[in-house]
Amino acid sequence: MNTVNTAYEDTSSDPTALWAQARAWYLARDFPEYGSLAWRQLPPDDPRRYAAVLDAAEHWRRHVAHQRWLESLDDDAWFTEVTREANAEARRIIKRLDLANGRSHAELTAARRHLAPALLEATLGWPPIAIPGQPGRYLTYGNDEEVA
After folding, report:
1. How would DSSP label each residue in 77-106?
2. Which residues make beta-bridge pairs with 146?
3. How far is CA 74 from CA 70, 85, 101, in A?
4. How far, in whole angstroms, is CA 146 from its chain's centroid?
5. CA-to-CA dists, residue 102 to 4, 42, 106, 110, angstroms
6. Diameter of the chain by CA atoms?
7. How far is Cα 11 from Cα 98, in angstroms, rounded to an integer?
8. How many angstroms from the chain centroid is the CA of residue 115?
9. Selection from 86, 87, 69 nearest residue 78 by Cα
10. What is the DSSP string of the chain?
11. Per-residue pLDDT tens listing for the chain (148 residues)
């Protein structure tokens, strides 16, 4: 019958035992963050030290895989993906603000409707107004006149 000694044992002479203990710590998630002060204070052969290295390596592997996946996307898909969380957060904030203001869905929909463009009117004393989308045309007080 095998018994497991949970006390810390010196495994520096047995790499297999060290690996098994590090893996157990890694799976238990009971180790300090890689590079932290607590990690640096562990003895060099402590399995928790190796578990933190395993954890950091796995995070790096996933990060690199995600970056490669992003690089494989076309521009539109890439933009959609990298802005996904920001867009979701913006929607949550807007929803929270609208609920706080007590506005109904119908009121919000009506508020989003585009209004008809305002008609330009020249006023006495103001300079001619350039007409948008019509280069060289100006609206002046009393009539429309083209200026070349």
Report:
1. HHHHHHTHHHHHHHHHHHHHHHHHHT--HH
2. 137
3. 9, 19, 40
4. 51
5. 62, 56, 12, 15
6. 106
7. 60
8. 33
9. 69
10. ------S----TT-HHHHHHHHHHHHHHT-SPPTTSHHHHTS-TT-HHHHHHHHHHHHHHHHHHHHHHHHHHS-HHHHHHHHTHHHHHHHHHHHHHHHHHHT--HHHHHHHHSPPPPPPP---TTSPPEEPTT-TTEEEETTEEEE--
11. 333 344 445 556 677 777 777 777 777 778 899 999 999 999 988 888 888 888 888 889 889 999 999 999 999 999 999 999 999 998 888 887 766 677 777 777 787 777 787 777 788 888 888 888 889 988 888 654 544 4
Q: At which residue do the structure tokens 């300090």 appear?
A: 32
Supply 37's token pair. Answer: 């002060």
